[in-house]
Amino acid sequence: RLRPASTAGYADLVARHQSDVAFRDVVDHVAEGLGLTVLSADGVSGVVLAPLPGSPFELRLSDYRANLTADDRLLHGLIHVGIAAYTYPTAASLADDDARHASVIDVERFLRTACERLAERAGDEPADDGASESAQAWRLYVRRQATRDTADGRVGVSTTTGMVKYAFERLVTAGMATRTATADHGTYRLLRRYRTAVRELAATAAHQELMQAMRDED
């Protein structure tokens, strides 16, 4: 979560990575040896890394959240795709530097609307064991309760609203977002390094399916 602007030594290294080809090659090869790939490096976000498959730095589901059921795993995966789709709805939006903000409630509503449209399109067709993970996920999302307050006034962690909030908080921990307000269960600013990760990593079939569902009627 370091930034070059607040760490002089880091700023010098990033500047060298940008200007010195031999140094950049060394950094990239060392990263590769550690099971990492350098997605970008600039004076604002610093070095943005992503783990390669099998890397010791790869996030495991047990690291993300303990004791997830199979259904919850699919839902959390869909929610992260949904945050990316809501925040960057077009290829052009991934190219601009404007700050992006999103609330838990806005993303939950966006995802629920998209999943309901996909469910309407599927009609009464039953889900089978061969259905794609994205199809299984949006069917689960429609059936899952959106919100349920607990005795202490917090949103239930097993609801879709609670899951969306948890996903945003994980992005904060990863240095990809900051919390800007508490309204609507939390409003967040998505940082440039998040945009980089979405641009490089999130062009998935599930992402395209969600966006198509929203474009069909909007």
Would you give an account of this structure?
By secondary structure, the protein is mainly alpha-helical. 51% of the residues lie in helices and 12% in strands. The chain has helices at residues 8-19, 21-33, 61-64, 70-87, 104-122, 133-143, 160-173, 192-201, 205-215; strands at 36-42, 46-51, 100-103, 177-181, 187-190. The protein has a 3-stranded antiparallel sheet with strand order 3-5-4. A two-stranded antiparallel ribbon has the order 1-2. A hairpin with a 3-residue loop joins β1 (36-42) and β2 (46-51). The longest helix has 19 residues, at 104-122. The model has no long low-confidence stretch (mean pLDDT 85).
Summary of the model, kept short:
The protein has helices spanning 8-19, 21-33, 61-64, 70-87, 104-122, 133-143, 160-173, 192-201, 205-215; strands spanning 36-42, 46-51, 100-103, 177-181, 187-190. The protein is mostly helical.
- Encode the helix/strand succession as letters: HHEEHHEHHHEEHH
**Beta content:** 5-15%
Q: Determine the N-to-C terminus distance.
A: 37 Å
* Side-by-side strand order of the widest sheet: 3-5-4
Largest sheet: 3 strands, antiparallel
Shape: globular
Number of strands: 5
The value of Rg in angstroms is 19 Å
